[in-house]
Amino acid sequence: MQNEQEFSKAEKFWMNFKLYQLWRFIVLNVKIYTIAVQSKFH
Amino acid sequence: MAKVLVIGAGFAGHTTALYLGNKLGRQHEITVMSNRDVFGYVPSWVWVGVGHMKPEQTIFKLKPVYDRMHVKFVHAAAKEIHPDASDQYVLGEEIGSGKEVRLDYDYLVIAPGPLLNFAGTPGLGPETGFTHSICSLPHAVKTRDAYLALCERMKKGEKVKIVIGTGHPGATCQGAAFEYIVNVHKDLLKKGLRDKADILWLSNEPELGDFGVNGVQIKRNGIVQKSSEFIKSVFNDHGIRYQVQTGVTKVEEGKIHWQNYEGEEGATDFDFSMLIPQFKGQPFKYIGKDGSDVSSKMVNPAGFVLVDGKYGLPYPELSQTPEAWPAQYNNPTYPNVFAAGIAFAPPGPISKPFTNKNSLLIAPAPPRTGMVSGVIGRVVAMNIADLIQTGKMNHSERMTEMVAACIASMGDNLWDGNAVTIVMRPVVPDRKKYSNEFGRDLFISHLEMGVSGAWMKFMLHYTFIWKFKGLFGWKLIPE
Asked: Hey, are the CB atoms on A39 and B444 less than 8 Å from each other?
C-alpha cells in the first residue's frame, strides 16, 4: 500500500493484470490446498 | 451396531455426515435430522443478494446424497434432547406432517447452525423489522428484491442511503457483510448508479478489517501489514464511508439507533440496510431422565453447547491461553454429545471486547462458519469413528491451531471482478507458539486482492458443491 489510505497505481495495475493474476491464482491455490490438506492429519 | 445422530445439515453437520457415512455407513446407523431438505452453499448468497446468482444454483437436495453415502435422512425439526445414559434420544417434529419423531442415539452431533436472533435488536430483520439479511436463502432473495427495487428508484434519479454491517453489539460474520457491501458498490458502478448512493459500513468491530478475529496480519517484504490498513484502502478507493466501534441498539423505519465506544448515542438514516443479526444457539430443550431441565450442563446462556473448552477466563487471560479453546468438541457431562460449527460455545471473544460507559458490551463474537465449521465437522466425525472402532479419540484441532482461508468477493465478474484472499494461521491467535504480538504465523498468513480472487471464489462455488454432493474425489477437497 502506498500509505494507510489508498492503493497505489502500481498495486491497482497488478491487481488487474491478467497474466500476473493467473500466476497468483496458481500460487494461491497451491498454498491454500497445501496448508488445508495438512489440517487433515490432526 | 452403533447409532449416530447428527442434528443439522449445514457446513458442519453435512461434513460430519459425509465422513461418518463414508467411514461407518455400511456397518452402523448414521442419521441426519434437519429441518431443511436441501444443502445451502452459504458463501454464494452474497451474490444472490445482489441478483447475480439464481437461488437454485446455491442449493441441492440432501436425500439423494445421503442415500449414496449410506446415511438415513429425517426431514424434521429437533425439539428435545434427552442426553442421560440409557435413555438417550432426540424428539423432533416432522416437517409437513407435524408428526412427532423419536430417534435414539449412541452418539449425538449438534450442528444445527445459528438461531438468527433478530429479536435481540428491536426493529431488526426482514420479517418483523426494517432491515435485510443474507443469512438464509429466503432472506437473501428478499434482500435481492428490495435491493433491485431500490435500484429502480435510483434510476429515476433518487439519491439513497445504504447501510451495511452488523445489527447487534455482539454480532459476528462481519466478513459476509463486507462481501455484500463491496458487491453492492460494484453492482451499482456497473449499473451507472453509484453516484446516487451514499454507502456506509456500520460495524461493531474494534477497527476496520477486524472481522471478529482480531484482524489479519501479514509480513510482506519484511514489513508487517494489517487488514485494518488494507480494508481502509478498499473503502477509501470505493468511496464507502465507515463507522466502527458501534453497536446497533434499535432500528425504526429509515433510522438505525446505535451507541459507540465513547457511549455516544446516535441515529443513522437509511433507505436500504443489510445488517447481520446476533447469533444464538438453537432453543432445544435438554431434558434429564427424571424429566428435569439439564440445560445448564449442556449449554451456555446463549444456547451454545458447552464442550471441552476452558470457560470463564477473562479476556486478557484467555488471549494468552490457547489451550482454553476446545480440541475435540464433546460435552464434559455427556461425552457422547458433540457440537460442531456455530453450535459449540467458544470460551470467549477473539477480538478485544469493549464495554462503554453505559455498560453496553460491544464485542464481535468469534466467527465459526465456513472452513472452521467444516474442519470441526470432520474432527468430530473422525473421533466418533475412533470411539466406535477403537474406544478412544485420536483427533483434535483447536481454533488456536486451525488454518482458515477466506475469499471475500468484491464483484463476481471473471474479467473485472475482484476478491480479497485471506489466509490465517491460526484463526485464534496463539501467543505462546508465535512470538510476535499478533500470535499468528506471519509466513503462512496472507492477504491479497486481485481478479485471481474472483476466479478462486467462482471455482470454490463449484468445487465445494461437488464436494458436498459427495461426488468422485470429494475427500481430496479440503474443508
From this structure: no
Residue closest to B101 by CA, chosen among B211, B7, B240: B7
CATH of the domain at B42: 3.50.50.60
**pLDDT tens, B71-90?**
999 999 999 999 999 889 99
Structural domain contains residue B194: no
Confidence check: pLDDT of A42 > 80: no
Structural domain includes residue B193? no
Tell me, yes or no, whether B156 lies in a domain. Answer: no
- pLDDT surpassing 50 at residue B296: yes
In a domain, A2, yes or no: no
- At B164-192, the pLDDT tens digits run 999 999 999 999 999 999 999 999 999 99
- Number of domains composing chain B: 1
Answer yes or no: is B472 within a domain: no
Pairing of strands B337-339, B107-110: parallel
Q: Across the interface, which of A14, A25, A40 has its CB nearest the CB of B478?
A: A40
Among B residues 95-114, those touching chain A with beta carbons less than 8 Å apart: none
Q: Do B446 and A28 touch (CB under 8 A)?
A: yes
Classify residue A6: in a domain, yes or no: no
Q: Predicted ipTM? A: 0.89
Which residue has 490498513 as its cell numbers?
B229
Would you call A42 and B401 a contact, using CB atoms and an 8 Å cutoff? yes
Residue of A nearest to B232 (CA): A5
CA–CA distances in Å: residue B183 to residues B174, B192, B430: 14, 14, 33
Spatial CA neighbour of B380 closest among B367, B390, B393:
B393
Q: Do A39 and B421 touch (CB under 8 A)?
A: no
* Mean pLDDT computed over B322-346: 98
Residue A23, in any domain of the structure = yes
**Region B256-280 average pLDDT:** 98
In the block, residue with C-alpha cell 480472487: B453
Q: What total number of domains does chain A contain?
A: 1
Q: Is B174 in contact with B276 (CB distance < 8 Å)?
A: yes
Question: Closest Cα to residue B388, out of B107, B85, B108?
Answer: B107
| Domain annotation covers residue A20 | yes
pLDDT at residue A1, as a whole number? 45
* Residue B337: domain span: 3-115+280-358+365-390
Taking any CB pair shorter than 8 Å as contact, residues of chain A touching chain B are 1, 4-7, 14-16, 18, 21-22, 24-25, 28-29, 31-33, 35-40, 42
CB contact under 8 A, A28 and B456: yes
CA B79/CA B411 separation, integer angstroms: 40
Residue ranges making up the domain that contains A24: 13-39
